[in-house]
Design a protein that fits this description.
The complex is a heterodimer. Chain A is of the alpha/beta class. Helices cover 35% and strands 12% of the residues of chain A. In chain A, strand 8 and strand 9 form a beta hairpin. The two termini of chain A are 21 Å apart. Chain B is 5% helix and 34% strand. Chain B is mainly beta. In chain B, a hairpin with a 4-residue loop joins strand 5 and strand 6. Classes of the chains: A alpha/beta, B mainly beta. At the A-B interface, helix 1, helix 2, helix 5, helix 6 and strand 4 of A face strand 2, strand 4, strand 5 and strand 6 of B.
């Protein structure tokens, strides 16, 4: 695929001021966005892809929330001053690939004023979302996820015992992973007996905290063909930012409601075709909500869906996280996305532990969550197949 | 139980100076869009619904209900870790927005989803006050009695 002739720059805007002592970086991002959109004859609601550098906030999440963007493609590649040139190239690729129709790229910063006034500015600086939520004793990620769990329980009758089933399934898998941080199988009763951290989430509803990392190599079909090692074919992908929607946040669903359908559509498969899932499992509630949002069960049914060993490999209805997941195996750097893809590839290669290898695994799904389902989040769904899938 | 929660001063961005100054006077302000009329949360001079920069302040009623909450039993945050257990919540204001806050002046275990609450202000000593919420004994319906 080439991007030649596949994308055009339709709007431009340079902020007219050179000293801006009385506005946040976030406001300036919004102002230049409005200016460029007006120049193009477009509006904020037309934007489906957003690009920014690492100083704009929490990746692209903060400004997507601020500007009320509804996105199907995001990118915060940080290469210093060259970032925005890179972004143009990435935007063209996304458009050529059908991932986006209207891509917005913004830059803002106030190094002159920040140096004079001691206000946050310059490279980075506080964004208002983080200020208005940083005052109340949010104790790490668990506090926000706990509030999502409370609301899910309130609306759908989900129980702590149902959440515990997710941990139990992960622990049954982790016993076969000699590298897993937690290798002892657990029972629902043991999970429910673990200390309360942030109600209704207990210690064993939480993922492990581990050092480490991971890597992936993605190659062209030509290169893949010449390699002796079996590859996994990328079949479909979706991404989004789900945010607070101007204070109308709904904690009962995740960004998977957007990223999931797009990935399924691109892959040309349905939920029934999926042999194995890697579901981001920062907390047990993360799995329950994500399974619903990916369409493996109806909204609100996730707590019941995970009962009766549904997630346990190899014979459960939907085997998940056969490495033990973030809940038992590994959550390197507090970011579990890469291990989700790695275990999906192991399954497609037939190289998971024999005790948890899904027979004839031909199509697998890996889903990543970033930020917090308790406020604003990134979401990405990847569907992979065997080489001949 | 009287509140023992800490009162950290917010980082004050230029466009929220008026918001925080008002909290010091016991007022909770909402930014409102002059074009489409929606209340905007978190406060910003930009409407994320219609894209307008024509926005202005109005005073909120200070009343709402608990949308969701958690009782925090473990915390490493100085000030908060000495106040365990405490309640972090989203309160749905009468005007619509769901705002993150603390529920105070009641036992943590008495907080329930849907509970009517009203705003109270806790002075930060830095020209601002934190908007927290306590059970609202004047609201109709099921209530948890405040205890002091």
């Amino acid at each position: 695929m080439t991007i030649r002739g596949k994308a055009f720059i339709a709007g431009i805007y340079e902020h007219p001021l050179r000293v801006i002592p009385d506005r946040s970086n976030s406001q300036i991002h919004a102002e230049v966005a409005a200016g460029a959109l007006a120049d193009a004859g477009l509006s904020f609601s037309d934007v489906d892809a957003y690009f920014c550098d690492a100083s704009a906030g929490f990746g692209p999440i903060s400004m997507a929330d601020y500007m009320g963007l509804h996105l199907t493609h995001v990118d915060s590649t940080e290469t210093g001053g060259s970032s925005y040139v890179v972004h143009v190239g990435h935007a063209a690729e996304a458009i050529a690939a059908g991932k986006s129709q209207v891509a917005l790229i913004t830059l803002a910063g106030r190094p002159r004023s920040a140096a004079m006034a001691g206000r946050p500015g310059g490279g980075g600086g506080a964004t208002p979302d983080m200020i208005f939520e940083g005052l109340w004793g949010m104790s790490g990620a668990v506090t926000g996820y706990a509030m999502a769990a409370t609301r899910h329980m309130h609306e759908f009758g989900t129980t702590s015992a149902q959440l515990a089933e997710v941990k139990v399934a992960a622990s049954l898998h982790a016993q076969y992973n000699p590298n897993a941080f937690l290798q002892t199988p657990m029972t629902v009763e043991e999970v429910l007996a673990s200390p309360m951290i942030s109600s209704p989430l207990r210690r064993d509803d939480c993922c492990v905290v581990t050092d480490g990392g991971g890597a992936l190599i993605v190659v062209s079909p030509e290169v893949a063909r010449d390699l002796s090692r079996v590859s996994a074919k990328v079949l479909g992908h979706g991404e989004t930012v789900k945010h607070a929607d101007n204070g109308r946040l709904d904690l009962t669903y995740t960004g998977a409601v957007v990223s999931g359908p797009r990935a399924f559509e691109e892959a040309g498969v349905t939920q029934a075709d999926i042999d194995y899932v890697s579901i981001y499992d920062s907390f047990t509630i993360t799995v329950v909500e994500t399974l619903e949002d990916l369409g493996f069960c109806a909204k609100g049914e996730g707590g019941r869906f995970v009962l009766d060993g549904a997630l346990v490999a190899p014979d459960g209805r939907l085997p998940f996280n056969t490495d033990g997941g973030g809940l038992c195996n590994n959550h390197p750097s507090n970011r579990g996305g890469i291990t989700k893809v790695i275990e999906a590839v192991r399954q497609l290669r037939g190289e998971a532990h024999p005790a948890v290898q899904v027979p004839d695994c031909t199509i697998a799904l890996a889903h990543g969550t970033g930020g917090s389902i308790g406020s604003r989040m990134g979401s990405s769904t990847l569907i992979l197949g065997t080489e001949d899938a | 139980m009287s509140t023992t929660l800490p009162t950290p001063a917010p980082i004050n961005l230029p466009e929220t100076d008026e918001f925080w100054a008002a909290t010091a006077e016991g007022k909770l302000l909402l930014r409102r869009c002059d074009d489409c009329g929606v209340p905007i949360w978190y406060p910003r001079p930009f409407c994320p619904v219609c894209g307008s920069f024509r926005t202005s302040w109005s005073e909120a009623s200070g009343r709402g209900t608990v949308y969701t909450f958690t009782v925090v039993h473990r915390s490493g945050i100085p000030g908060y870790r000495e106040a365990l257990p405490y309640v972090v919540a989203y309160v749905e204001l009468a005007e619509g927005p769901r705002v993150m806050t603390n529920i105070v002046d009641c036992e943590p275990d008495d907080v329930v989803v849907g509970m009517p609450v009203r705003v109270v202000f806790h002075d930060t000593g830095a020209g601002s006050a934190l908007y927290r919420f306590q059970p609202d004994p004047t609201a109709t319906g099921e209530l948890t009695s405040p205890r002091s």
